[in-house]
Amino acid sequence: MSAPIPQQAKSKSLRACLLCSIILSPADFRKIGCPNCEDIMQLKGSPDRIAVCTTTSFEGVIAAINPESSWVARWQRTTNYARGMYAAYVKGRVPEDVEAELENKGIKYRPRDQSDLD
């Protein structure tokens, strides 16, 4: 699986998913949702959900061409994610309902803002 590579180079027009940190344009999030966590984030076709579950506040861009074998993808915990562009650091946290859903599924939420370093 791969995600579209955003055409715009201006980071202010791009958004990063707060859960997986993939970087897409708002139009791509509306059109396809999040290629990694759409079942939880439910971004497809929902501008309101995109506004609260993604952010324009991110730093660093990582291009994951072959995430399964990339040491950077292992470091970013994105080895099982779609090929695409990812933020190295994402400021913000997922909404409480998403955190609750992750907890109900037995998934430990790890913020992408480096506040949960391991």
TrEMBL record:
UniProt keyword terms in alphabetical order: Centromere, Nucleus, Transcription
Subcellular location, record wording: Chromosome, Centromere; Nucleus
Molecular functions (GO terms): RNA polymerase II complex binding; zinc ion binding
Protein name listed in UniProt: Transcription elongation factor SPT4
Gene Ontology BP annotations: regulation of DNA-templated transcription; transcription elongation-coupled chromatin remodeling
GO cellular component, one term: chromosome, centromeric region
Gene3D superfamilies assigned: 3.30.40.210
Family: Belongs to the SPT4 family.
Domain of life: Eukaryota
Pfam families assigned to the protein according to its UniProt record, in alphabetical order: Spt4
Domain Spt4/RpoE2 zinc finger residue range list: 14-91
Function noted in UniProt: The SPT4-SPT5 complex mediates both activation and inhibition of transcription elongation, and plays a role in pre-mRNA processing. This complex seems to be important for the stability of the RNA polymerase II elongation machinery on the chromatin template but not for the inherent ability of this machinery to translocate down the gene.
Organism: Leucocoprinus birnbaumii
InterPro entries xref list: RPABC4/Spt4, Spt4, Spt4/RpoE2_Znf, Spt4_sf
